[in-house]
Design brief:
The protein is an alpha/beta fold and about 230 residues long. It is built from six helices and seven strands, in the order βαβαβαβαβααββ. It has one domain: Rossmann fold. β1, α1 and β2 form a beta-alpha-beta unit. Bound molecules: NADP nicotinamide-adenine-dinucleotide phosphate.
Length: about 230
């Protein structure tokens, strides 16, 4: 496994749940960290905790359904990292309500694709060229193992499209030390996963770091299941 000390890392959706765990783990590996949530208040405790422990960490806020917010997020990340982002952890996502099959609205599809697919793809499009030019980068896009649940169709379709983005980018990354992969965290008791989920959010580690710590020859387009490493 590689050394990521002093690498610049952005974790979206770091205020709670899975992103919070991933952010702490990257800080403990020595990354210079940028944490995102909708409001700065959302990551304040995390920021205070990591700073008190001596980590270099900054917070940015953006509603991912807002084009203006996402543009500002990109500008702030570029400024903070001196346009040198090394690790992008596209973790933030929203899930539409569980509802009868055939009933999701167009708006539910729109917002799911906007937050869960278009914005992660946009962040990849923005930061991949710099990573390729420097010949180093790690991107993890958080997907889901959701399967055969038409009641959550906008969510599952948005994750399927994100997986397609990752897989179709493989030829672009071939031969470089820029790796882009997918994480299935498992079904965890977060706000999104709900109280009935079988696993504790802490069980996303150490698996969630595996796609960040890959050696160059391990390649892109792979789906890592965090729960494979939890037990
Ligand atoms: N939990 C599970 O069982 C499970 C299973 C499969 C996949 N996943 C995936 O794992 C990732 C993390 O999920 P989680 O369970 O940790 O979710 P969570 O606890 O609900 O946290 C979601 C995070 O995303 C941010 N976020 C949500 N909607 C946003 C928006 N419109 N704009 C900006 N930020 C937004 C939230 O920020 P605020 O705090 O500011 O709202 C929060 O930091 C997601 O990609 C999810 O699809 C989770």
């Amino acid at each position: 496994m590689i050394d990521i000390e002093n690498r610049w890392a952005l974790v979206t959706g770091a205020s709670r749940g899975i992103g919070l765990r991933i952010a702490k783990a990257l800080a403990n590996k020595g990354c210079k960290l940028i944490v995102h949530s909708r409001e700065l208040q959302g990551t304040k405790n995390l920021l205070d905790e990591l700073k008190a422990a001596g980590h270099e960490v900054y917070a940015v806020a953006a509603e991912l359904d807002s084009i203006a917010d996402v543009q500002r997020l990109i500008s702030e990340v570029r400024a903070l990292s001196n346009d040198h982002l090394d690790i992008l952890y596209n973790n933030a996502a929203m899930m539409t309500k569980y509802q009868p099959t055939f009933e999701p609205t167009e708006e539910e599809y729109r917002i799911s694709f906007r937050v869960n697919t278009i914005v992660p793809a946009k962040l990849c499009d923005v930061f991949l060229p710099g990573m390729i030019a420097r010949n180093w980068g790690r991107i993890v896009n958080v997907s889901s193992g959701i399967n055969n649940q038409p009641q959550l169709m906008p969510y599952s379709c948005s994750k399927a499209a994100l997986e397609r983005y990752v897989r179709d980018m493989i030829p672009t990354l071939q031969g470089t030390d820029v790796l882009m992969n997918l994480l299935d965290p498992g079904w965890l008791r977060t706000d999104l996963g709900g109280p009935e989920a079988p696993d504790d959010p802490d069980s996303v580690l150490p698996g969630a770091l595996v796609p960040v710590l890959l050696e160059k020859d391990q390649g892109s387009g792979l789906l890592f299941c965090a729960q494979d490493y939890a037990r």
